């Protein structure tokens, strides 16, 4: 095999290293890598690097990936000074997501950082954590209209025809933001009355509607029940039209899920419904 | 009210600003703030800041929060140069999570960043996104032994007595890493035979066990069924002991969920089971 010499055929190793789960390093690192769509990356994560010994091992892996032609990237969210100092000696490009920012924050606050302490994604504040776990439980129990009890204790009720993204969005809002999200599936009978479906009557202030495009909805439904009326363009188009009319009639805010990710939907819904959740 | 002059009684406003959902800014920002446990912060997020006009509005909010005694913190993951230039003019402390790192990466890769492009938490790569959505669906269908069909197509099967954290951990692994996770609840009958429960026989290579402490398990169960045998210390202690013996007998790796968050469990499980998931 000859080396074609084109950067695009080369794969650049990327390492994420952290004292905790590595979620921060991964998230922000990926955000940066996305700015280089022409480059192929091979990612590997090293979570829970909390000792200098472990840092030395990990640095060995980093350095072994360095070649004359390729400099791997290391994204680090390690906060411990000694561990960081060890990692920084790598021959890879070291992107310290933590380092200098902390100095700035220390100056602004006139308070010293603890340089360690509880990891963000540890249990931390147990009450806050329990709230998230309870929210997941609530979302599971109230998925797809499974239970219509205690809907009034929901922070948010997602309303939509089947397969418009209610479930993943509910789970995301519960897991990430500790919001108690119920969801209510609109079915044909709901469209006949013209009014709001009984279970969500009186709760319209916390309802949020999801829509999709007929093509996308038909595709998603077709994967579940190929060739069915349920998945037909005609049926999908009808349900979406009626759902949209219902949202409009009752001033339920809505978004089209066809071109949005759950993360985007969650951010838009929270902004629009003035829900702060757990930040 | 007199100002006591103690920094700890003052609340420092913190703003997260992003061109996308703001998850990266929030995650890494909070990781840094956690280094200052004595300081009270008041957080606010501004997602989807993609135009200079919007940036100007948002900067107005930042600056309005500046006082003689308090300098708010702004964590920015904005990648667009013009938007960033507008935001940087704030009188708050501006923590640019993106800025200089991108220059370094550009030098290392000898490739220019696009300085914009698809947001990380947009739909992006649809195939990758669909895989995550399918994983959530799979996790929902296979929660708590609800369906024992297609267990062989699971990437991972979480095994544990009731209320040890199977459900949130499954959801997290599906949502965040696109892993197809089933979970299997161990009940008393499972302990009687000594062998592996029938549905997971032959699948032991992808099983992972969760444990808890009797006290924590009893507390969590007590919230659901106060005063029940199910929630009693004796019952919890018994089930945990038997579960642990079962894991040991069948060489199923396990962790204790009592002192770990779902994020930590997910990271440990993936590391231990050699699952890379979607990074």
UniProtKB/TrEMBL annotation, chains A, B:
Pfam families: Kinase-PPPase. The keyword Protease does not apply. The keyword Cell inner membrane does not apply. It catalyses: [pyruvate, water dikinase] + ADP = [pyruvate, water dikinase]-phosphate + AMP + H(+); [pyruvate, water dikinase]-phosphate + phosphate + H(+) = [pyruvate, water dikinase] + diphosphate. Its EC number is 2.7.11.33, 2.7.4.28. ADP binds at residues 160-167. It comes from the Bacteria. Keywords: Kinase, Nucleotide-binding, Pyruvate, Serine/threonine-protein kinase, Transferase. Belongs to the pyruvate, phosphate/water dikinase regulatory protein family. PSRP subfamily. HAMAP family: PSRP. Bifunctional serine/threonine kinase and phosphorylase involved in the regulation of the phosphoenolpyruvate synthase (PEPS) by catalyzing its phosphorylation/dephosphorylation. This is Putative phosphoenolpyruvate synthase regulatory protein. The lineage of its organism: Bacteria, Bacillati, Actinomycetota, Actinomycetes, Micrococcales.
